[in-house]
């Protein structure tokens, strides 16, 4: 199961107004900035990252992380409803599964003859299966 | 092998109803054998054993030998770690969304 946190906000503004407001980065925290375009830079305190997807005015996806922590993926979905505009945030850590598999592979390689570093995983993987 | 991220292992371990019952039951007993636990649940001792193994992989229970018996006890450490991450991140988003709401409100009044 993926570890994720979800939050919602309902506001009377239009999705376009919400999107414009996202560009003023005060909401992200002190000393923050965000460029609302793919590959745009995201900064907030000691966290930094980049924008994966910017689909104005309905969806923004970015990655961020502090130097000492696993990167998180943040999805913001902005949806117009009869009651107003819903901003739905999901923050998750989808890379953790990759790091688990990487470590498992590294262990297997060590068992297969102490090849050691994960860097050799791609080359060593096929040989390991043959062995 | 145990997963590298304790939180993911904890969530998968607790995604199953029988394992949640087992974990709760162990919490009430403090310590119990697979045989004791199987008596209180509608599953076989073998099934209990298997579920305890998965809970142990996730670091949620630990076993010790006592004579001819193996006794299990809950070790809730990794669960608090997962819950702490969710609580901390959730709290941060409460603050950020509240700030976004204030931003939108001030735009409205200045418009």
- Share in β-strands of chain A: 35-45%
Number of DSSP strands of chain A? 7
Helix proportion range of chain A: 25-40%
Oligomer classification: heterodimer
Radius of gyration of chain A: 20 Å
* Total count of strands of chain B: 3
Main sheet record of chain A: 7 strands, antiparallel
Q: Any overview of this molecule?
A:
- The complex is a heterodimer of chains A (131) and B (111).
- Chain A has 131 residues and is an alpha+beta fold.
- Chain A is built from three helices and seven strands.
- Chain A is globular.
- The model of chain B has no long low-confidence stretch (mean pLDDT 85).
- Chain B has a three-stranded antiparallel β-sheet with strand order 1-3-2.
- In chain B, helix 1 packs across helix 5 and helix 3 crosses helix 4.
- At the A-B interface, strand 1, helix 1, strand 7 and helix 2 of A face helix 1 and helix 5 of B.
Element layout with pairings:
The complex is a heterodimer of chains A (131) and B (111).
Chain A: E1 4-11, H1 15-22, E2 32-34, E3 41-44, E4 47-55, E5 59-65, E6 72-80, E7 85-92, H2 96-111, H3 121-130
Antiparallel strand pairs in A: 1-7, 2-3, 3-4, 4-5, 5-6, 6-7
Helix pairs in contact in A: 2-3
Chain B: H1 6-13, H2 17-29, E1 32-33, H3 34-40, H4 45-57, E2 61-66, E3 69-74, H5 77-110
Antiparallel strand pairs in B: 1-3, 2-3
């Amino acid at each position: 199961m993926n570890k994720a946190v979800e939050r919602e906000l309902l506001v009377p503004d239009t999705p376009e107004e919400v999107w414009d407001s996202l560009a003023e980065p005060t909401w992200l925290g002190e000393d923050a900035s965000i460029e609302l375009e793919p590959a745009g830079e995201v900064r907030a305190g000691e966290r930094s990252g980049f924008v994966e997807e910017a689909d104005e005015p309905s969806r923004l996806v970015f990655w961020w992380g502090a130097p000492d922590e696993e990167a998180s993926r943040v999805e913001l979905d902005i949806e117009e409803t009869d009651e107003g505009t819903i901003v739905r945030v999901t923050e998750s850590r989808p890379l953790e599964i990759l790091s688990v598999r990487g470590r498992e592979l590294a262990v297997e390689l060590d068992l297969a003859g102490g090849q050691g570093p994960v860097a050799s995983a791609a080359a060593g993987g096929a040989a390991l299966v043959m062995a | 092998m145990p997963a590298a991220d304790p939180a993911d292992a904890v969530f998968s371990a607790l995604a199953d109803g029988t394992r949640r019952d087992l974990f709760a039951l162990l919490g009430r007993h403090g310590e119990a054998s697979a045989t004791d636990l199987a008596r209180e649940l509608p599953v076989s001792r073998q099934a209990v054993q298997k579920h305890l193994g998965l809970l142990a992989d996730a670091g949620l229970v630990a076993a010790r030998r006592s004579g001819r018996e193996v006794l299990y006890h809950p070790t809730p450490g990794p669960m608090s770690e997962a819950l702490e991450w969710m609580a901390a991140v959730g709290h941060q988003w409460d603050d950020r969304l509240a700030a976004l709401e204030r931003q939108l409100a001030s735009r409205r009044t200045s418009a």
